[in-house]
Amino acid sequence: MVNSNLKFLRTRQGLTQKQFAEKLGLKQSAIGAYEERRATPPLPCLLKICQVFGVSLDVLTQKDLSKLPEKEWKWQMPRREVLAITVDSTGKENVELVTQKASAGYLNGYQDPEFIAELPRVSIPVLPRNATYRAFEIKGDSMLPLQPGTIVFGEYVDDPNAIKSGKLYVVVTRDEGIVFKRVYNLLKEEGRLLMVSDNRSYPPYPVKADDILEVWSAKGFFSMKFPEPEASETVPADHLALTVVRLQDEVRRLKGK
Q1: CB environment 143-157: b (16+ within 10 A), e (fewer)
Q2: To pair with 200 at 20 to 30 A between CA atoms, which of 26, 40, 57, 87?
Q3: What string of DSSP letters covers 105-153?
Q4: Structural contact between residues 135 and 95, judged by C-beta atoms closer than 8 angstroms
Q5: What letter does residue 89 receive in the DSSP assignment?
Q6: How far apart are CA 200 and CA 145, in angstroms?
Q7: Which are the contacts of 207, defined by CB distance < 8 A and separation ≥ 6?
Q8: Can you say whether the dihedral through the CA atoms of 19, 60, 81, 136 is positive or negative?
Q9: 94-105 burial, b if ≥16 CB within 10 A, otherwise e?
Q10: d(CA 189, CA 49)
């Protein structure tokens, strides 16, 4: 299936094998071998094809592109809407706080300036003023050691393609709502993001490109709860503290004599 799809993409673009190879950074002989089914493209080559021609890896490897309407295989990033913001009396952008209670309404009102204006605001002097920020109260324990109720401050990401894999983001999605995760960017290769929890008891899951409403890059957090130490760290620390106290008592006892 992959071999025939390569030829379909090449001829659809009106490219010779040489031109197609140059576009992908390959040798013409490799393209010939792929199209004639004498070889199968390795994964790095497939990912490059996905990126150049805007097709997901699943479709490229499992579907016959020649039998599908373009809209069913041609992946495009959905059009980004204008971000709704508010400003204070001096013209500076406010930092609105989306609480857990307001998170459900945010999915419907995130583009409505009147809804955004009703959100509580927080002042964070240390945040640079050359970007747009929003604060989100996280729920659940999927991102431990950050506790439920922690407020994460995010910088608005205009283009989700700019997401850096392995970094922390608040992602507003149609189906999952507002989620705070470690994100891996597979948009160009597969048309989706991979959401990973720091608490490994929660399995990773994908979010499709057209499910993304907003993306905010995590820049800091505030919490009224201090992170709890790992169980493996607690026992040795407590044991050491107890040992120190007992040694101090013994020193005092010896000095008393």
Answers
A1: bbebbeebbbbbbeb
A2: 57
A3: HHHHHTT-HHHHHHS-EE--TTS-SSS-EEEEE--SSTTTTSPTT-EEE
A4: yes
A5: T
A6: 11
A7: 171, 173, 175, 176, 192, 193, 194, 195
A8: negative
A9: bbbbbeeebbee
A10: 8
Place of tokens 């907003």: 214
For the chain, domains (ranges, CATH) are 2-73 (1.10.260.40), 95-222 (2.10.109.10)
Please report, as a single letter, which amino acid is at residue 92.
K
Q: List helix spans (H) across the chain.
A: 2-12, 17-24, 28-35, 43-53, 57-62, 70-73, 103-109, 113-118, 187-190, 231-256
Tokens standing for 254?
A: 């010896």
User: What are 218's two structure tokens?
Assistant: 């995590």
**Cα 247 from Cα 228, distance rounded (Å):** 27
pLDDT tens sequence for the chain (257 residues): 788 888 888 888 788 988 888 888 888 899 899 989 898 888 778 877 876 777 777 788 888 888 887 766 665 544 455 677 888 777 778 899 999 999 989 988 888 888 898 999 987 777 777 788 999 999 988 998 888 999 999 999 988 888 999 999 999 998 889 999 999 998 887 888 999 999 989 999 999 888 898 999 999 999 887 766 665 544 454 556 666 666 777 777 777 75
Q: Label residue 195 exposed, middle or buried (CB < 10 Å: 0-12, 13-18, 19+).
A: buried
